[in-house]
Amino acid sequence: MLESTLWHPVALSEAVAAQAPLAVQVLEQPVVLWRDSEGAVLALADQCPHRGARLSLGRVTPQGQLECPYHGWQFAAGGQCTHVPALPTFAPPATHCVRHFEVQEAYGLVWVRIVPGEQGLPGFAAEGDARLRKLNCGPYDVAASAPRIVENFLDMSHFGFVHEGWLGSREATAIDDYRVEPTPTGLLATGCKAWQPQSNLHSTAAAQVEYTYEVTAPYGAVLTKVPEAGTTAVDGWRESIALFICPVTPVRSRVWFRLAVADFESPDEKLQAFQHTIFTQDQPVLESQTPQCLPLDLRAELHTAADKASSAYRRFLRQSGITFGVC
User: For residues 55 and 23, what is the distance between their CA atoms, to the nearest angstrom?
Assistant: First the structure.
């Protein structure tokens, strides 16, 4: 599956401690994370090959190896068993091992790839912009497929209903035409405009807001938004938000938002609270959709010109051979 060769976010970097292993799941695969003695994050299949116990219930040894909770077998970074306590002089052969996975840290998250591939991490151009402050919001565990969540992120015509009084109003629901073009990672939508009563934390007046959307990976996207001048308490306000999703199962996802905002004064909690409000308005609607997986046959659901970004996203997934979380 192409999905297995992609990098997937599985945990906040700060959640992976040196003292204890952490259980996560991606593409229905149980994975255990831990940090070695030098602080590097490692990832193995969360199943001891001896008697099948969850390695995440074990401990990290002072030498930075992972110890099984059942019989104390110890495993090194590459998954090789290095010690069997019941047989102190036994040298475990190469077959005594656990499957290991590639892992890296970026955007304040730990990323895992199940199968080696050529795909890089989803891009986030704002990450390198020193004029914008970065922080994460989440995780959110959502009973919806990752593609359904991406499509919702790209959709503006729900603003006046799901986010009434915040990102939209029932009195201003018309969506002007906008441009969508394919890219190597998905699509780019530009010229997207929405009238919003409160477009951001620092809004002082309703504003016409211009959005740009980019699908950066099958399960990732970025939006940038700039409100009209003079409608925020922060001069020159702009923000960019990345959506990073771990597809846990075809119909269950773990979601993070990476915020990049022109605000170095507000506490993290205040900035995160605004994003939390918006997404928790989306979540019950997302979890109500049927089918939970995203239909790639464009005849399965109805579409209008206002939906052309999501229609382009569905075409991209079909052309890319994505099968996890779609139907």
Answer: 8
Per the listing, tokens 């934390």 go with 201
pTM across the whole model: 0.94
φ, ψ of residue 12 to 5 degrees: the values are -65, 140
**pLDDT tens for each residue of 57-96:** 999 999 999 999 999 999 999 999 999 999 999 999 999 9
Give me 170's structure tokens. Answer: 């029932």
At residue 229, φ and ψ (nearest 5 deg) are: -60, 140
